[in-house]
């Protein structure tokens, strides 16, 4: 059957996963049915590979994955295709800013997760993938955002309304999914991208069908082609059943 859409790119937290961080049995069933019918299902997440892969294994996915907001693209499980690193000098500056503002912070290196409680002593000699801040204080987040924009060379998004996530400039889930399309011989017009936060925005805007979850941030809903039920109400099932596995 000639289907209009061939690749389903799924954000994880707030999208594929319910608030309890589980995938509902109904969603598991429909994802496996999509795969059975020849649809590529790709996890596209801000999480690092080691935190995302157990879910790919549960869903029996062997297709490419986009992790750390696009800083890593995996051709297959444990087979890295592309990696984009942050400038370690910028990471040192971002750390100084976190200390100055008192915001909680974390960062993923290639090797491990660092945060406010166990910061790295040797920033210069690590390979950095992503830096993040969390603050409930809108003014603090705004101040951080302004300073980050002044630094330059950074891609700034979020995975919740109270955080900021920073990748190398030009690196996001859209660039990651484009790489996946190249690997699979597909076009972005054949992609359905689903998400809930600003780190999903670029790929939702550039996919053939951009879908916001019912629990998505308003900016994401405004830019999406379609809004479905929330992550706790099997919104992914709606996407697969009503928009992908239909005759075309």
From TrEMBL:
It comes from the Bacteria. GO terms for cellular component: cytosol. InterPro entries: HAD-like_sf, HAD-SF_hydro_IIB, HAD_sf. One of its GO terms (molecular function) is phosphatase activity. Pfam families: Hydrolase_3. PANTHER family: 5-AMINO-6-(5-PHOSPHO-D-RIBITYLAMINO)URACIL PHOSPHATASE YCSE, PHOSPHOSERINE PHOSPHATASE. NCBIfam families: HAD-SF-IIB. This is Phosphoglycolate phosphatase.
